[in-house]
Amino acid sequence: MKREKEIEEKLRLSVKVHGGIALKFTSPGFDGMPDRLILLPNGKMAFAELKSPGKKPRPLQLARHRFLRRLGFKVYVIDGIEQIGGIIDEIQSS
User: Fold this and answer.
1) pTM score, two decimals?
2) What contacts 53, CB < 8 A, 6 or more positions away?
3) pLDDT at 2
């Protein structure tokens, strides 16, 4: 079973291979924001919440995800390495 940190590292490396960066994202005074900001070539971006397999976001995190989506941003919850490739493809094609 992959831990959250392993999934996060795989995301970071996969985004790098695609020519982008996956920045650790912290927002002091505004808790519940996603863990990573994914920036890909051609101005493509999304937020990613990383979780251990089977774990779900907390209610505050879900509220922040809804807020970001209302603003028009893509927000992904990733709890498995196998999700990463498809998510990167989706961000690139948006």
Assistant:
1) 0.94
2) 1, 2, 79, 80
3) 62
